[in-house]
Structures are given as C-alpha cells and as structure tokens.
Write a structure and sequence with these properties.
This protein has 99 residues and is mainly alpha-helical. It has one domain. The chain is built from four helices and no strands. Helix 1 crosses helix 2 and helix 1 packs antiparallel against helix 4. The radius of gyration is 14 Å and the shape is elongated. The relative contact order is 0.23.
C-alpha cells in the first residue's frame, strides 16, 4: 500500500496546483494537509484515520457543481483532475490506515 501512496504522491508532487484551487474555500489547506499525510505514509509512517483531512464544504460544493456542468473550462477541468488525485490519495490513506 505504501508503494501506491508513493506513486500517487509522486503524481501530486509533479502536478501543477490548479489556479481555481486558489479561489475555492480552504482548498489550499486541504491540499497541504493531505500532501503531508501522503508524504508521511510514503515513508512508511502510520497515518491514523482521524488525521486524514476531508475537503471543506465550499470545496465539496464547488466540485459537485462542476461535475454537473455540461460546458466545463480547461481551468475547471484541471481543478477537478487535481481534486480527483487528492481523493485517490485520501482513499489509499484510509485503506492503509485500516490494515
């Protein structure tokens, strides 16, 4: 499981932060906290489920609204792609924590 988190963390490390993410809720904080958890887990440290952050309400609402749009801009798609990567990491962290 650590290897999957390492791989996902590598993708996150190389991905540009989406410009829309700077304007949505506490998304930068969520990104930072989750990246910290992923870095720890990729080094083999245990991350407790209670330490794994979730996105704030404004970010969750924005993501839901964007997923309903039929005409999405490149900026919006970049944000959704980045958010989806964070969700993959969050899911992998939960799986690792429950093992």
């Amino acid at each position: 499981m650590a290897s999957q988190i390492q791989e996902l963390f590598g993708y996150l490390h190389r991905a540009p932060f989406p410009s829309l993410g700077k304007r949505v809720g506490d998304f930068p904080l969520y990104d930072s906290l989750l990246a910290g958890c992923a870095e720890r887990a990729s080094r083999g440290e245990m991350v407790l489920p209670s330490e794994i952050p979730v996105s704030d309400d404004e970010t969750s609402k924005c993501v839901a609204e964007l997923r309903q749009k039929s005409d999405i801009s490149q900026e919006e798609q970049a944000f959704l792609d980045y958010f989806d990567l964070l969700e993959q990491i969050r899911t992998a962290l939960h799986r690792q924590a429950l093992q």
